[in-house]
Design goal:
Blueprint (H helix, E strand, L loop, with lengths): L2 H6 L31 H16 L4 E3 L9 E4 L4 E6 L5 E6 L4 E19 L9 E14 L5 E7 H14 L10 H16 L2
Antiparallel strand pairs: 1-2, 2-5, 3-4, 5-6, 6-7
Function: Removes the formyl group from the N-terminal Met of newly synthesized proteins. Requires at least a dipeptide for an efficient rate of reaction. N-terminal L-methionine is a prerequisite for activity but the enzyme has broad specificity at other positions.
Catalytic activity: N-terminal N-formyl-L-methionyl-[peptide] + H2O = N-terminal L-methionyl-[peptide] + formate
Family: Belongs to the polypeptide deformylase family.
Length: 196
């Protein structure tokens, strides 16, 4: 069992909730730097990113979204979130069925087919739109020890990896849309941000 598998085995929801930067924060337009040090700081970053993602809630979170320009993202397309009422009458969420993943220095090596999927983004809250992506991909990445891993993914997992990988290249999903749609949604989003 490698460090990542050990780190993620019997995952428990703990860590620090980090600030999520929203569009048009400059960090979201920057190409992230490769991770070169595989140490306890990296493990803490991954742990805090997972914690932040689950509480946002979202199914993926890339380091630039929390203001760190490193090539790492986390995701979980399987977890469940249920609203519950506590004994004292307060409402909260129970989060379960964890299947966290960590991708460090990912590279999409192969793509095949097309899929259109409605995407949203923690950095562009409230905006959802259909985006065309590769249906299947092969991605290489490193684990928390720096060992190379290979994953073949399709469907939602493939879409999520491509979405998060875009963040590492300074691309927000709106930029994957036609100019007309992008301009329309960006104006609508910016109007909402200014109205806060």
């Amino acid at each position: 069992m490698n460090t990542t598998e050990e780190f993620l085995k019997d995952y428990t929801l703990e860590g620090e909730k980090l600030e999520i930067f929203t569009y048009p924060a400059p960090i979201l337009k920057k190409v992230a730097e490769p991770v070169t040090e595989f140490n306890d700081s990296l493990k803490k970053l991954a742990k805090d990113m997972l914690y932040t993602m689950y509480h946002a809630p979202g199914i993926g979170l890339a380091a630039p979204q929390i203001g760190v320009s490193d090539r790492i993202f986390v995701m979980d397309i399987d977890f469940e979130r249920k609203e519950v009422t506590r004994a004292d009458g307060t409402r909260d969420y129970d989060i379960s069925n964890f299947n966290p993943r960590i991708f460090i220095n990912p590279k999409i090596e192969k793509t095949a087919g097309d899929i259109v999927y409605e995407e949203g983004c923690l950095s562009v809250p409230g905006i959802y739109e259909e985006v065309k992506r590769a249906e299947a991909i092969k991605v290489t990445y490193q684990d928390l020890d720096g060992n190379e891993q290979i994953l073949e993914a399709d469907g939602l997992l493939s879409v999520c990896i491509q979405h998060e990988n875009d963040h590492l290249d300074g691309i927000v999903f709106l930029e994957r849309l036609s100019t007309l749609k992008r301009n329309f949604l960006t104006k609508r989003y910016m109007k909402r941000v200014k109205g806060r």
